[in-house]
Amino acid sequence: MRTRITPTASTVEPNIRRIAEVGACDVGYSFVALSRQESRGGQCVSNVGEIYEAACLARSLGCRYLEVKSELTPDHHLESWSSQFSSELASELDRCDRLVSETFEVLVSQSLLDYFTTESAQPKSYVTCAVTRLRTLITPTGMYPCAYHRGKERFRLADLSESSLRDAWIGADLSLVDPSVDCDFHCSRHGQNVWIHGGDESVERGGKPDFFL
After folding, report:
1. Which residues contact 47 (CB under 8 A, 6 or more apart)?
2. Residue 166 CA from chain centroid, whole number
């Protein structure tokens, strides 16, 4: 009988420190900015005030980076934030700038940057996704063009219990996704698609070109 071990700060933090000390790879972790209403009609609370503290912890553990991500709705749209939390979020990110050095950086996800600059809706004019072959997802239930369409039977490219990975990959029809129709949600790869398709939209993050597809 296998015993399930639930990770806690007392086990995770020392492990992060040990991995960072080995120096075989860059170590970091993500912070998801969340807001919740405590109860129906109750006070809305958020963890955005903990971002700076999380960055301090990451640096003290020897991490190379902390990535701050935005919460999304279950259907992958940007979560709406109150003006109070929006202001606090911007303030926390400004404080994090003081921690940046040659060995540590605070990364802000594209979805969080988009929260400050775009509407929740993200219409797309292109009809093919140029990123699917780089983001193809393999799961126990099948192979899908990306994580956003995981579990949707219409977009299942192959059943790996019935075919080899090689055959599934060669035979995958990634053109079945039409972003202008199938992807009205907020896609973190939209900027890359616009750039690849020849649009003018910036794919920069933090002033530096971000070509991680």
Report:
1. 33, 34, 35
2. 28
Neighbouring C-beta atoms of residue 162, cutoff 10 Å: 9
- The residue type of 209 is P
> What phi and psi, each to the nearest 5 degrees, are found at residue 70?
-95, 145
Q: What angle do CA 146, 151, 157 make, to 5 degrees?
A: 60
Query: What's the mean pLDDT in 183-207?
Result: 72
Bigger pLDDT: 213 vs 9: 9
Contact (CB, 8 A) for 85 and 49 = no
- Tokens 């971002």 locate to 51
How many DSSP H helices and E strands does the chain contain?
A: 8, 9
Q: Look up the pTM and report it.
A: 0.65
pLDDT, average across residues 81-101: 85
Report the alpha-carbon distance of residue 81 to residue 85 in Å, rounded. 6
